[in-house]
C-alpha cells in the first residue's frame, strides 16, 4: 500500500511526451484543469490548479530529460510538501516500437499521517483518470 504504479503506451515521440509532462501550458490542461506553473529544475516549485478543488503544491526532485521527471507534492491543498504530508511522483519515459511507454509511480503513502489508506485509494483512482487524460491530450492536441 506504499506505491501506485500506472503504465500506458502512447503513440507519440518521447520528446513530445516530455514536453507535455513538464511544461506549464500542457500540465495546466491535462493534469490540472485550471492552470499550472513550474520551475523545471531540482528544488523548483510546481503548482497544479484544479477547478473547485484548489491548488496542489509540489517541489521538483529530478529532471533528466527526456527520461525521468519527478516531484514531491503535498497531500493537503495550498501547502508546501513536508514530511508526513507528501508523496513522490515519478514519470519514466521509455521509447518503444509503438511510441512511448509512460510509467507513473507514486510512493510514500506509508509515511503519511492521518488516513493514508483513503488517500492511496483516491490517488489510485486519480492516476487511472489522469493517465487516460494524458493519452487523450497527446492524441488530440497538436504538437
TrEMBL record:
<comment type="similarity">
    <text>Belongs to the AHA1 family.</text>
</comment>
<dbReference type="InterPro" id="IPR013538">
    <property type="entry name" value="ASHA1/2-like_C"/>
</dbReference>
<protein>
    <submittedName>
        <fullName>Activator of HSP90 ATPase</fullName>
    </submittedName>
</protein>
<feature type="domain" description="Activator of Hsp90 ATPase homologue 1/2-like C-terminal">
    <location>
        <begin position="11"/>
        <end position="139"/>
    </location>
</feature>
<dbReference type="InterPro" id="IPR023393">
    <property type="entry name" value="START-like_dom_sf"/>
</dbReference>
<dbReference type="Pfam" id="PF08327">
    <property type="entry name" value="AHSA1"/>
</dbReference>
Amino acid at each position: 500500500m506504499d506505491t501506485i504504479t500506472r503504465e500506458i503506451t502512447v503513440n507519440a515521440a518521447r520528446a513530445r511526451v516530455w514536453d507535455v509532462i513538464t511544461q506549464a501550458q500542457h500540465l495546466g490542461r491535462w493534469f490540472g484543469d485550471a492552470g499550472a506553473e513550474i520551475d523545471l529544475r531540482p528544488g523548483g516549485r510546481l503548482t497544479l490548479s484544479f477547478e473547485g478543488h484548489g491548488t496542489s503544491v509540489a517541489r521538483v526532485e529530478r529532471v533528466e530529460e527526456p527520461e525521468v521527471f519527478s516531484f514531491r507534492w503535498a497531500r493537503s491543498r495550498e501547502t508546501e510538501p513536508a514530511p508526513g504530508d507528501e508523496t513522490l511522483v515519478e514519470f519514466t519515459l521509455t521509447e518503444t516500437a509503438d511510441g512511448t511507454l509512460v510509467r507513473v509511480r507514486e510512493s510514500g503513502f506509508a509515511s503519511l499521517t492521518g488516513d493514508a489508506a483513503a488517500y492511496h485509494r483516491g490517488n489510485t483512482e486519480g492516476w487511472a483518470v489522469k493517465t487516460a487524460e494524458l493519452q487523450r491530450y497527446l492524441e488530440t492536441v497538436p504538437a
